Every structure is written in structure tokens, then in C-alpha cells.
Backbone:
């Protein structure tokens, strides 16, 4: 079909509000939260349900056009950034919570529902949705599913994969596949398990079914104030080793605290602290009382100068709003923020945080830290200005070195933000060519022409050679929809 005719057909399916083609309309979709990498999509498609999604995907399949699935675009690894000539398929008009079933403790939602909206809706039934990324006021549940996202409460409750029960899925050909069977352990192959965390490579989730959890009887929020970041990290390593189970364990360092306290998210964090530990403990009233007592003893041993406990729900919300607004607050330091993301072994938190700090100092970069310490998800945040090409070069170099240092010490190249485009060619740091070829097999089976999110996550060739470029910056032109070999 000729391009104008295809555009006309897509506009007929989606309506004018669901089909964006002018440059100003498409500009907001040229990158996700990793602003260094940008590419304008050919068109932006915003279907309002599964059927519209399927019709569009079938047409795009006929024309061999690649698709970058997209939720809110809060991803930080370039996952939703389109490839030249491809379209963005966006879920933000699919925002209906279809059902909350308090008896089965499940929710069925469209993929574009914002994470925080589900928790708000579930609260009315005494339930909550546990995975709570710090971006939860904006990110979609479809994006969470595709990234297997975590959040502060992932330490106790786990990532998205622990809570997803089903998905309505549209494959690369536009066929609808119903994986919403309400069984705890469905018969046959765990296809859902393969799709969660697949970063948009296998198709499009349009509806999802999630487990909901009863709101605990009691929750206490603690703030422990430390004279050094190292002491805060060591206390986390120790409390995990001793089997303690707070529901959330977050660390914020001095630069982050300063930025938060000067922003609209000011939470009352102390200005003289080098680091604070923000924790939730939940359970029955007795369990919480015992756990808080044990934690406070341990934190004191590790040199906590002061420990506070939120005295009201309002104070608790404020302490958490400060944490969740921390990335926004860092906008005070520089126009751009590069959020590094690595998974550190939890017994080596202090060591790897220090290495990241040293790398940034050596490259003359401003680095702050705020992270899910309990999960070992480190986020050295580098403030920079992307208009300054030398700064961009140093930021990328720092990101690369931090990743290498973490992997060398037994960690992972991503903690929770995914591989996307940013880290694709670093996968060979952790995997052999054989491993990577094996990981590519499901893709060959589910999308043989690799039109779904091409160029993301899996390096099919050239990984080691690409890494030798220093600093590594994925060039968009190299990925014009032709990544990997077409077995046909
Ligand atoms: C301030 C800030 C804080 C953050 N905090 C956290 C955190 O605490 N924990 C965490 O894990 N992440 C965090 N993130 C990263 C990001 O918010 C998550 O990865 C989130 O899940 C992305 O959701 P999204 O809707 O924005 O997806 P997008 O960025 O639009 O897309 C992310 C990926 O999912 C794919 N995708 C999106 N929707 C679908 C769909 N319906 N079907 C198939 N594929 C799809 C895209 O192709 C892309 O590969 C944070 C980001 C920011 C900016």
C-alpha cells in the first residue's frame, strides 16, 4: 500500500486524535527518559483498545513497518525510542481500569493505566498494588510489565513478575492472544513468564491482570540519619544478612537531600546528613513493633546519628513524596540527568557506590545517589547539560565504567531500568555469544522479521566490536530495522 493510503487507513481506524503525523505532534515521542538518544517516529499511533491495536498492527505487518511500543515514555534505557522509519504505538489512550475483583484480589486493566491509579482504585477495597516504581505517578502498567519494573517496596513484595496473572497480547501480525486465564499455575508453557520483561520485543500488551494485596494492618516509616554514605550502605548489608524484612529500604545521599529540600518535594530531611535511610516496616502491630525495635538497635550500631519515626500519615506521605520526587528535584542542578542503573550484590553496596563516586569525580561530573538499597539497585545520577558534547562524552564514559565495575564484582548491568538501546551492546559483558544466541531464539520464533522494537536488548552481532568504541554511544542510523538475520 502506498504511504498516503496507509496513513489514511490508520487515521480511519484511530480517528484524528489517535493518529499523529505532524512534526510538532511527533516530537514528544522521539525519546524516552534517556534524552541522549532521539529519533522521530514516522507516525504516532494511539489506539483506544485491543481491537484498534490489532487492526493497526496487522496493517503495519503487511507493509513491513517496525513498531516501538510505548507507554508513558518514562523508561531510562531508550526502550521506547523508535528506530528510523518505524512508528510509535502508544497506550496512553488505553486508560480504563476494567475490573477490580476484591474477592479474587485481582484487577484487570488496560495497559495504559498509570501505576498510581491502580493503587488508588484498589485502596477502596482495602487492597493495594505492590510494585511502586518511583515514576508511579506517570508510568503505565504496560510499561511496568514490559520492563518487569520494581520500586521501593520491591524488597519485600518483589517486582512486577510476581504480581502479574495474565495479559491480552497482540502479536507482530496483529493477532490477539488471550493469556488471561485466571489460574495460579496455568497448564502448559509459561508464555506469560516469557513476555514479562521482554521490553516490547514480542508484541503489545493491551490488557493486564494483576494480583492485589491486602493493605497491612500497620505500617511504620523510619528515617535514619547517617554521617557517611558508606555507613548507611553497610547497615543495609547487615540488616539483610540478619534476615530483617522491612518492606522498603531506600538511601538518599547529601546532594539528593539538598535538592529535595530546596524543591516542592521538601520532606524535612536533615540538612546535616551525608545520607538517610528511609524504610517502611509493615505487618501486624506486634510484628511491626518488634521489627522496628530490632532495626533501631542495628542502625545505632552502624552509627546512625538520629532515628525518626513518622508520627502521622501526613508525615509518612511527605517522607515518601520527597523520595519519589528526588529525580525531579535534581533538575535544579542541571538541565539533564543521566540515571545510571546497575544491580549490585547487596554485600558490596558500599564498595560499588564508592567506585561510582570516584569514577564521576575523576571525570569531573556531579553525581548524586538515590536508590532501592534493599534490592541492590544502585542509581548514581549524573547531572549534565546535553548541549555540551564533552559533558555527554564524559557522562557516557562514566555510565560505561560504572556498569563494568559492577559486573566485575558479581553484579548486573541493569538493576531495573532494562537494557533497551542504551545497554544492548554491553550484554556481552555478562553473556557469551552462545547465551545471546539462545536468548534470540524466542524472538526468532515470535517475530521472525524483528519488526517489534528492533535494535533493543539483544545484540545479534557486533556486540564486542561495538563496545570497543569509547565512549560507547549507540548510533541510531545503524539500527534501521535490520537488526539480526532474518531466518527466512
Ligand atoms: C523519575 C523516574 C523514576 C523511576 N523509578 C523507577 C523505579 O523505581 N523502578 C523501576 O523499575 N523503574 C523506574 N523508572 C523507569 C521507568 O519508569 C519504568 O521502566 C517504567 O516501567 C516504564 O513505564 P512507561 O509506561 O513509561 O514505559 P515506556 O518508557 O513507554 O516503555 C518502556 C518499555 O516497555 C515497552 N512497552 C511499553 N508499553 C508496552 C506495552 N503495552 N506492551 C509491550 N511493550 C511495552 C517499550 O517498548 C519499552 O521497551 C523510573 C523512571 C523515572 C523517569
Residues:
Amino acid at each position: 500500500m502506498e504511504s498516503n493510503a496507509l496513513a489514511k487507513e490508520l487515521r480511519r481506524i484511530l480517528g484524528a486524535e489517535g493518529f499523529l503525523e505532524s512534526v510538532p505532534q511527533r516530537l514528544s515521542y522521539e525519546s524516552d527518559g534517556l534524552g541522549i538518544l532521539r529519533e522521530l517516529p514516522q507516525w504516532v499511533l494511539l489506539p483506544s483498545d485491543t481491537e484498534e491495536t490489532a487492526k493497526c498492527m496487522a496493517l503495519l505487518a503487511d507493509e513491513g513497518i517496525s513498531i516501538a511500543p510505548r507507554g508513558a515514555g518514562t523508561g531510562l534505557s531508550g526502550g521506547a525510542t523508535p528506530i528510523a522509519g518505524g512508528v510509535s504505538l502508544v497506550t496512553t489512550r488505553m486508560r480504563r481500569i476494567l475490573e477490580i475483583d476484591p474477592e479474587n484480589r485481582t484487577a484487570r486493566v488496560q495497559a495504559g493505566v498509570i501505576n498510581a491509579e491502580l493503587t488508588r482504585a484498589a485502596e477502596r477495597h482495602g487492597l493495594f498494588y505492590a510494585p511502586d516504581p518511583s515514576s508511579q505517578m506517570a508510568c503505565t502498567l504496560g510499561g511496568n510489565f514490559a520492563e518487569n519494573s520494581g520500586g521501593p517496596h520491591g524488597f519485600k513484595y518483589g517486582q512486577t513478575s510476581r504480581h502479574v496473572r495474565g495479559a491480552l497480547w497482540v502479536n507482530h501480525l496483529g493477532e490477539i492472544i488471550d493469556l488471561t486465564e485466571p489460574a495460579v499455575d496455568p497448564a502448559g508453557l509459561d508464555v506469560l513468564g516469557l513476555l514479562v520483561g521482554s521490553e516490547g520485543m514480542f508484541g503489545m500488551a493491551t490488557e493486564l491482570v494483576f494480583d492485589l494485596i491486602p493493605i497491612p494492618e500497620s505500617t511504620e516509616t523510619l528515617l535514619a540519619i547517617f554521617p557517611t554514605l558508606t555507613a548507611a550502605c553497610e547497615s543495609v548489608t547487615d540488616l539483610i544478612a540478619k534476615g530483617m524484612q522491612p518492606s522498603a529500604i531506600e538511601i538518599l545521599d547529601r546532594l539528593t537531600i539538598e535538592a529535595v529540600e530546596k524543591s516542592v518535594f521538601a520532606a524535612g530531611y536533615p540538612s546535616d546528613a551525608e545520607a538517610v535511610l528511609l524504610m517502611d516496616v509493615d505487618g501486624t502491630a506486634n510484628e511491626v513493633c518488634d521489627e522496628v525495635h530490632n532495626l533501631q538497635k542495628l542502625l545505632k550500631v552502624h552509627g546512625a546519628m538520629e532515628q525518626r519515626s513518622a508520627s502521622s500519615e501526613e508525615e509518612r506521605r511527605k517522607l515518601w513524596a520527597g523520595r519519589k520526587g528526588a529525580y525531579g528535584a535534581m533538575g535544579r542542578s542541571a538541565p539533564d540527568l543521566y540515571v545510571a542503573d546497575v544491580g549490585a550484590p547487596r554485600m558490596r553496596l558500599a564498595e560499588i557506590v564508592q567506585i561510582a563516586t570516584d569514577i564521576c569525580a575523576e571525570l569531573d561530573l556531579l553525581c548524586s545517589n538515590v536508590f532501592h538499597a534493599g534490592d541492590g539497585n544502585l542509581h548514581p545520577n549524573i547531572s549534565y547539560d546535553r548541549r555540551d558534547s564533552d559533558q555527554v562524552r564524559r557522562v557516557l564514559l562514566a555510565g560505561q565504567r560504572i556498569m563494568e565495575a559492577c559486573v566485575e564484582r558479581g553484579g548486573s548491568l541493569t538493576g531495573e531500568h532494562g537494557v533497551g538501546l542504551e545497554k544492548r551492546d554491553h550484554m556481552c559483558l555478562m553473556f557469551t555469544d552462545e547465551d545471546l544466541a539462545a536468548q534470540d531464539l524466542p524472538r526468532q520464533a515470535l517475530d521472525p522479521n524483528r519488526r517489534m522494537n528492533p535494535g533493543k536488548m539483544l545484540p545479534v552481532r557486533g556486540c564486542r566490536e561495538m563496545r570497543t568504541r569509547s565512549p560507547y554511544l549507540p548510533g541510531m542510523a545503524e539500527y534501521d530495522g535490520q537488526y539480526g538475520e532474518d531466518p527466512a
The radius of gyration is 22 Å. Confidence is low (pLDDT under 50) at residues 475-488. The chain has five domains: 3-90, 97-214, 218-328, 334-408, 424-479. Residues 424-479 form one domain.
